[in-house]
């Protein structure tokens, strides 16, 4: 991680993955397996969604383009990698 990120993590709920703490970003749980990513001013940047696959959990990062449109940035094995898409 770069100097703007910290290795300190927060636990969103029992059994949920630990989210990284990244300066200027907030990760708010929406429901089990879905987090809203916003900046300091509260503007929603996108979402991270967890899905279970046969070979493990995946984390999809989706950027908000408009109120009802998103663009998939990628699907990752680690939630930290999905969160890095929003730096």
Please describe what this structure looks like:
- There is one protein chain.
- This protein is mainly beta and 87 residues long.
- Helix content is 7%, strand content 62%.
- The chain has one domain (24-84).
- A hairpin with a 6-residue loop joins strand 1 and strand 2.
- The protein is globular, with a radius of gyration of 12 Å.
- Mean pLDDT is 84; it is low at 1-13.
How do the strands and helices of this protein lay out in sequence?
Layout: E1 5-11, E2 18-22, E3 25-31, E4 34-39, E5 44-53, E6 56-66, E7 69-76, H1 79-84
Antiparallel strand pairs: 1-2, 3-4, 4-5, 5-6, 6-7
Spell the H/E element sequence. Answer: EEEEEEEH
Strand segment count: 7
Extract low-pLDDT stretches: 1-13
**Strands side by side in the biggest sheet:** 3-4-5-6-7
- Total number of helices: 1
Principal-axis shape: globular
Q: Into how many domains do the coordinates divide?
A: 1
The residue-averaged pLDDT reads 84
Gyration radius, rounded: 12 Å
Concise structural overview:
The chain has one helix at residues 79-84, and strands at residues 5-11, 18-22, 25-31, 34-39, 44-53, 56-66, 69-76. A hairpin with a 2-residue loop joins strand 3 and strand 4.
From the structure above, extract its key features.
87 residues; mainly beta; five-stranded antiparallel beta sheet; disordered N terminus; DNA mismatch repair protein
């Amino acid at each position: 991680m770069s100097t703007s990120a910290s290795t300190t993590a927060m636990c969103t709920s029992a059994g949920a993955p630990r989210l990284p703490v990244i300066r200027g970003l907030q990760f708010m749980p929406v429901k089990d397996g879905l987090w809203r990513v916003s900046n300091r001013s509260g503007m929603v940047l996108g979402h991270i969604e967890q899905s279970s696959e046969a070979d493990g959990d995946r984390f999809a990062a989706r950027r908000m383009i408009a109120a009802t449109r998103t663009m998939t940035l990628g699907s990752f094995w680690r939630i930290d990698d999905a969160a890095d898409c929003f730096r």
